[in-house]
Design brief:
Blueprint: H1 7-18, E1 35-38, E2 41-45, H2 58-71, H3 86-99, E3 103-107, H4 110-121, E4 127-131, H5 136-145, E5 148-152, H6 157-165, E6 173-178, H7 190-200, E7 203-207, H8 222-225, E8 234-238, E9 248-252, H9 254-263, H10 265-269, H11 275-290, H12 293-312, E10 323-329, H13 331-343, E11 346-347, E12 350-351, E13 361-366, H14 373-389
Parallel strand pairs: 2-11, 4-5, 4-6, 6-7, 7-8
Antiparallel strand pairs: 1-2, 3-9, 8-9, 10-13, 12-13
Length: 395
């Protein structure tokens, strides 16, 4: 009998179970709402990236349905052959105007936007200087490019300067950072990093996935929040979080975007967005421009919930955004906290190594504009009860 060449996979899974880190997939059985049903249990959902509640917004639903009826369910091809539709170009024009850049190209996901762009604009002769907590898609893109990778400590501009000073002259260098860091919810020091890029002649790139629809005027992101327009060469945004649909995009000069049309492998080799997705994203831009109160409600809820966790005695780290981690350190403890909260009616996913450092496990919470005050108070009550039972906080 042939031995199983993948037996080590089962052994690795068993090791995760023994460490208390094994996580089955939670199954959503209803709409992506503030209170919804996962695994047959009604819970307050604090694990969704649906910051503004747009996944169920009537305008997005109606535009998506109309697009299906008018244009069908798929595009049938990659963008460079027969899959570029008028609605894709309309979405890109709207995004470019929104981001105040010359042009935009839409990718199938935020991950492919990052990985495809970094791997396209760099070669093995170039250098990437990257924050140590940048998203995995940035790391993978840098590896695919075969460029030399230099990592600086999180948000440490002086350390980044020392890295740049030590580089050989004449090498193309990309300085890259998240705008909002997805696990800690803190912001990059963009003005200082932009100044650094200008001082050393770097290409400046920002992944603004968790800032899209959250920071800046009408949700234009951290570039707008910090008023560094014209100082960031490559902006990456997402259509999958606050925008409520699916995809990612790159905003920048027209030359950059046309170059990506010819070199970005995810763009070249993946079928383009279904018309319904593009239509929903266009409707989302309309909502951002015409219903700014959604962002105001998001921030009001964020302030209330963050203050409540801190008053209870939880460690919320350096969060400056609706992403508020509850940091407990040990991975098994984080998973027990997550499971006990779920049993108490609150879904806050546990996160441990390798997503975060071995001693920085946490449950990550994200509030939305559509959470009610009663839902947030219920969640805080569950955190208080479970946190005390597990000895994470005291009376």
């Amino acid at each position: 009998m042939r031995s199983d060449p993948l037996a080590y996979v089962a052994a690795e899974l068993e090791a995760l179970k023994q460490q208390g880190l094994y996580r089955p997939l939670r199954v959503l059985e209803d709409e992506q709402r503030p209170t919804t049903t996962f695994d047959h249990r009604q819970v307050v959902n604090l694990s969704s990236n649906n910051y503004l509640g747009l996944t169920t917004h009537p305008r997005l639903r109606d535009r998506a349905i109309e697009a299906v009826r008018r244009l069908g369910v798929g595009s049938g091809s990659v963008r460079t052959i027969a899959g570029t539709m008028d609605i894709h170009l309309e979405l890109e024009r709207r995004l470019a105007a929104f981001k105040q850049t010359e042009a935009v190209v839409v990718f199938q996901s935020g991950f492919t936007a990052n990985a495809g762009t970094v791997s396209s604009i760099l070669t093995k002769d170039d250098i990437v200087v990257s924050d140590e907590l940048n998203h995995a898609s940035i790391i993978d893109g840098a590896r695919l490019s075969r460029a030399t990778i230099k990592v600086f400590p999180h948000k440490d501009v002086d350390a980044a300067r020392q890295v740049l000073r030590g580089l050989p002259a004449g090498r193309r260098t990309l300085l890259i950072t998240d705008g909002v860091f997805s696990m800690d919810g803190d912001l990059a020091p963009l003005p200082d990093l932009c100044a650094l890029a200008e001082e050393f002649g770097c290409v400046m790139m920002v992944d603004d996935a968790h800032a899209s629809g959250v920071f800046g005027r009408n949700g234009r992101g951290t570039i707008d929040h910090f008023q560094v327009h014209g100082r960031v060469d490559v902006q990456v945004g997402t259509l999958s979080k606050a925008i409520g649909a699916l995809g990612g995009y790159v905003a920048g000069s027209r030359a950059l975007i046309e170059f990506l049309h010819h070199r970005a492998r995810p763009f070249l080799f993946s079928t383009s967005h279904p018309p319904a997705v593009a239509a929903a994203c266009i409707a989302a831009i309309d909502v951002l421009m015409e219903e700014p109160d959604l962002i105001d409600r998001l921030w009001s809820n964020t302030r209330f919930f963050k203050a409540g966790l801190e008053q209870l005695g939880f460690n919320t780290g350096a969060s400056e955004s609706p992403i508020t981690p509850v940091i407990v350190g040990d991975g098994a403890v984080a998973m027990r906290l997550s499971d006990r909260l779920f049993a108490a009616g609150v879904f806050a996913q546990g996160i441990a190594f390798p997503t975060v450092g071995r001693d920085k496990a946490r449950v990550r919470t994200i509030v939305t504009a559509t959470h009610t005050r009663a839902e947030l108070e219920f969640a805080l009550g569950a955190f208080a009860t479970v946190g005390r039972e597990l000895g994470i906080i005291r009376e």
